[in-house]
Design goal:
The protein is an alpha/beta fold and 177 residues long. The chain is built from five helices and six strands, in the order βαβαβαβαββα. It is globular, with a radius of gyration of 15 Å.
């Protein structure tokens, strides 16, 4: 049994004019959402054995805040290939994971992450910023991913968790990215 966790980076800031997309940091709402998702994952026991993430500033900040809030100290691998990656590239990141990792989290961007989640679920999954989707497959080895049938287990969005975690996310009116 293997679990694939797909986490879209939390909400980023557009406040610095001229800043390259790769360099955009999280805004206040994004920082709160990353913290919330980390606490939630720890609370429900949904912690990965390995995180593979885009190397963009907003994904790095999402992972760092998530791991601090979850009090998780596992390995994180940063990859420029996951920056705005296509679904096939995101799957490759899981396919090449070591077999010791039963649960792998991929932290990346839309549209690729949303397209991958939808393909694995066999239905459209909307993946706003900070959303985590969880899929399970009967696999002995990650390398056999191409033959796997994934089952959607959970889709958690930060806004849906605020009541359950009694933590409000500030609304900065800055759109969804």
């Amino acid at each position: 049994m293997r679990e694939l966790l797909l986490l879209r980076h939390a909400k980023s800031s557009w406040s610095t004019a001229g800043l390259a997309d790769h360099e955009r940091p999280l805004n206040a709402r994004g920082r709160a959402a990353a913290d919330l998702m980390g606490r939630w994952c720890a609370r429900v026991g949904m912690l990965p054995d390995l995180v593979r993430s885009s190397d963009a500033v907003r994904t790095r900040e999402t992972v760092e805040r998530w791991r601090d809030a979850a009090e998780w100290h596992g390995p994180v691998e940063w990859s420029s290939e996951l920056y705005h990656a296509a679904p096939a590239t995101l799957l490759d990141a899981a396919r090449t994971a070591p077999n010791t990792a039963r649960r792998v989290m991929i932290v990346a961007h839309n549209p690729g992450l949303e397209e991958l989640a939808s393909a694995l679920a066999g239905r459209e999954i909307i993946h706003p910023t900070g959303t985590l989707s969880v899929f399970r497959a009967e696999l002995d080895h990650w390398r056999d991913l191409d033959h796997a049938v994934f089952r959607e287990v959970h889709v958690w969005r930060p806004r849906d968790l605020t009541d359950q975690m009694s933590s409000a996310l500030p609304d900065d009116g800055d759109g969804d990215d």
